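Appendix C reproduces, verbatim, an entry submitted by the partner laboratory led by Prof. M.T., so that reviewers can inspect both the input and the predicted structure.
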Amino acid sequence: DARKDADSVGIRFVVASQEEAAKLRDLAVADIESANTAALSEIAQKSTDLAVTLAGRVIGREVKASDHQSLIQDMLSKLPSRN
């Protein structure tokens, strides 16, 4: 009887641990998805800001392809680094 009781307790412990691990995994996945959505939103906003800034610099003069690339590189270098 004692052996069966011990086995039963052990099985319940394993099942409870697996359920808790699944809950924690689900929470982690939700947090990651939320952070990903926030990051993509921030990237979209910064891209829009960059496009507007570049357009403002371009207005009023003709831009050669090399000038255009130079403007893009200049603006990208001014974005805050996430490293």
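The first helix runs from residue 2 to 58. Additional entries are available on request from the coordinating office.
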